[in-house]
TrEMBL record:
UniProt keyword Transcription present: no
Cofactor: FMN
Pfam annotation, one family: Oxidored_FMN
Chain intervals for the UniProt region annotation (Disordered): 48-74
Protein name: NADH:flavin oxidoreductase/NADH oxidase N-terminal domain-containing protein
Record organism: Solanum verrucosum
GO molecular function annotation: FMN binding; oxidoreductase activity
Family: Belongs to the NADH:flavin oxidoreductase/NADH oxidase family.
Length: 286
């Protein structure tokens, strides 16, 4: 369920139909279009829930300004995993090239992974392995449904705003990278440790490099990148791709702008150009 008014969805057939011309328009322009599958969990209010119920989460611990959540029982979890599977199927039916599972920024999947949120005592809580179980079950279900080459995941182990930090984010990121290798997904997209809160870039000693080395697929980094910084991270082998957020929103022709800048720079023989993605920001409703 959403947190913002008018968030688009992909859980109903009419929504699938409504997406088709939009996806086509992107394809007609040569774009690659992945659909981000998002469940907000406790980052929601009853105003956005069916029958004004409490939002669901791994926990019943509230986040300020949001409606206190209801902790999912163990036997309800397979239904949520299945909802991600259905949303992924719907996205492919709508024509998307793939889906990005939103496991970042304190939303439902993150609420299971992070030990400052998850206080469960069942097989989805406690150890790192248990806390990551929900995320990996979703990955497995989605991979089985649409194929690993059409699946990516976004993670932010170091982010900690809205009370969703983890006591050992490096271990969490590493465990996820190693576990994801089993599924052969298309990419892992990770938010840099320097972006601990939305929009605020801070100096920090942590690095994604060990996680990048552990993950055997395409590794995408994000947060606070400009052109020079983006080229550097790719040149130094610390990422395969860079995702741009605010720069892209402000400049819909950002790929062209960066590539034109590249032409002038390449005359001096410097740097390689980056590939930029993304994406449809969607929510899936449960
Ligand atoms: C208006 C806005 C909406 C965003 N929505 C999402 C979202 O739906 N999913 C997501 O993973 N990140 C979302 N983000 C975060 C961005 O993807 C990105 O991680 C963040 O802006 C930092 O990268 P940047 O410095 O390149 O902007 C959003 C950011 C902004 C500014």
């Amino acid at each position: 369920m959403a947190i913002y008014k008018d968030t688009p969805g992909i859980w109903r057939k009419d929504q699938v139909e409504a997406w088709k011309p939009i996806v086509s328009a992107v394809h007609d322009k040569g774009g690659i279009f992945f659909c981000q599958l998002w469940h907000t969990g406790r980052i929601s209010t009853k105003d956005f829930q069916p029958n004004r119920q409490a939002p669901i989460s791994s926990t019943d611990k509230p986040v300020k300004t949001q409606t206190p959540p209801r902790q999912l029982s163990t036997n309800e979890i397979p239904q949520i995993v299945n909802d991600f599977r259905i949303a992924a199927r719907n996205a492919i039916e709508a024509g998307f090239d793939g889906v990005e599972i939103h496991g970042a920024h304190g939303y439902l999947i993150d609420q299971f992974m992070k030990d400052q949120v998850n206080n469960r005592t069942d097989q989805y809580g406690g150890s790192l392995e248990n806390r990551c179980r929900f995320a990996l079950e979703i990955v497995e279900a989605v991979v089985n449904e649409i194929g690993a080459d059409k699946v990516g995941i976004r993670l932010s182990p170091f982010a900690n705003y809205m009370d969703f930090g983890d006591s050992n984010p490096s271990a969490l990121g590493l465990y996820m990278a190693e576990s994801l290798n089993k599924y052969g997904i298309s990419y892992c997209h990770m938010v840099e440790p320097r972006m601990k809160t939305i929009g605020e870039k801070v100096e920090c000693p942590e690095s994604l490099v060990p996680i990048r080395k552990a993950f055997r697929g395409t590794f995408i980094v994000a947060s606070g990148y400009d052109r020079e910084d983006g080229n550097k991270v790719v040149d130094e082998g610390r990422a395969d791709l860079v995702a741009y957020g605010r720069l892209f929103i402000a400049n819909p022709d950002l790929p062209r702008e960066l590539s034109l800048m590249h032409l002038s720079i390449s005359i001096t023989g410097k740097h390689s150009i980056l590939l930029i993605l993304l994406l449809a920001i969607l929510t899936i409703h449960f």
